[in-house]
């Protein structure tokens, strides 16, 4: 057995369950020595696959498969890495895992392979986080955006902002350190223009990050309305399958029916809900309560209204189309689309109109009229632009960029003041640089690293 203090780690890198191939990953100083005691063909050449038997302590054959050795620093973690590709049964993988552990390694913590790659400067923090985004991507667009982040596209944008910010800070610090040197108007205008350009570029990257954030997390949309306005039919149409029961009987939907649907890469979890009305039916009441609860936590509410009822009133107030028992506070600060359904029965053309700051889409679920307009408006209301080339971004990235934008905006205001306070200006720029550095991990802390990598699986 090898000394434990070599701190070599091991983990199963393939998902739990049964598959054709299962991979055990070993990383650390002792990985090659451990592998040599397991492999029948112990001669490992870097980056070359070897087909061999995997042996027990008594030299019995446990399995046959492929071994690959990656020599430091040319590996994912930057350390010596050996991957054993065995048959993908959980029993044989567990036997091999215990064999590796008995030879002096330990089970890797969640995300420890990626963490070692980060600490070895093989990847930065943004690239490390993009791995988990790529693994969990649920649309093709989300996967491609994660690949862009993994390849360093997001990090490149952040580093360009950092370079410009550092250049401005150098000028400001020089002014503070050498106050006796008078600045001419040209120099002052040059610094000011650099700050303005920096603020504009930060805003651009922030917008791209928000797009990437939508790809990662998706949104939650709730379909709300009175009974028989077509809520379940809308869910079925968007899902392209019969997800919800549709009948002419009011109150058919008693519970919330969920389905995740991709609209041009934007993942949306739609919730079909019970029809909102006054009722004495206990089960239906519970369904309505759940509908209101889902609407309260949704990113978007699609309020469906029968075109006949819409025509009969000149009132487009949301509250007008729901019972008095529904609290109006539910709709405060909510993104809402009014879908006027069944226009095919009321001689109305499909269109979108904006009236009193309320978006109204006219369509027919049954005849599939205006549904593309609805999809466009869903993306627009949530701020999603699928034409932009984006990278994936986490909430912490977006929050950091928002803080950076705020700092630089304050710096611009201080610079524009008649009496410039250079120390305050320098502090705003320092805080902005610190926030930017936290995104890629140039400046970070142990708690943040632990939180980020804890989201990973063991073998990653």
Question: What descriptive keywords fit this protein?
Answer:
460 residues; Gyrase A, domain 2; Four Helix Bundle (Hemerythrin (Met), subunit A); Rossmann fold; 6-stranded mixed β-sheet; 13 strands
In short:
The protein is of the alpha/beta class and 460 residues long.
SSE diagram, text form:
Blueprint (H helix, E strand, L loop, with lengths): L7 E5 L6 E9 L3 H8 L10 E7 L5 E10 L10 E8 L1 H13 L2 E3 L4 H8 L5 H12 L3 H11 L2 H25 L7 H33 L1 E7 L5 H9 L17 E7 L2 E7 L9 H16 L2 E7 H5 L23 E7 L9 E5 L2 E5 L8 H12 L12 H22 L5 H19 L5 H8 L7
Parallel strand pairs: 1-6, 7-9, 7-10, 10-11, 11-13
Antiparallel strand pairs: 1-2, 2-5, 3-4, 4-5, 8-9, 12-13
What does this structure look like?
By secondary structure, the protein is of the alpha/beta class. It folds into three domains: 4-108, Gyrase A, domain 2 (2-Layer Sandwich); 127-215 and 394-453, Up-down Bundle (Four Helix Bundle (Hemerythrin (Met), subunit A)); 218-382, Rossmann fold, CATH 3.40.50. The protein has helices spanning 31-38, 90-102, 112-119, 125-136, 140-150, 153-177, 185-217, 231-239, 282-297, 307-311, 371-382, 395-416, 422-440, 446-453; strands at 8-12, 19-27, 49-55, 61-70, 81-88, 105-107, 219-225, 257-263, 266-272, 300-306, 335-341, 351-355, 358-362. It has a seven-stranded mixed β-sheet, with helices on both faces. A six-stranded mixed β-sheet has the order 3-4-5-2-1-6, covered by helices on one side. Helix 6 (153-177) runs antiparallel to helix 13 (422-440). The longest helix has 33 residues, at 185-217.
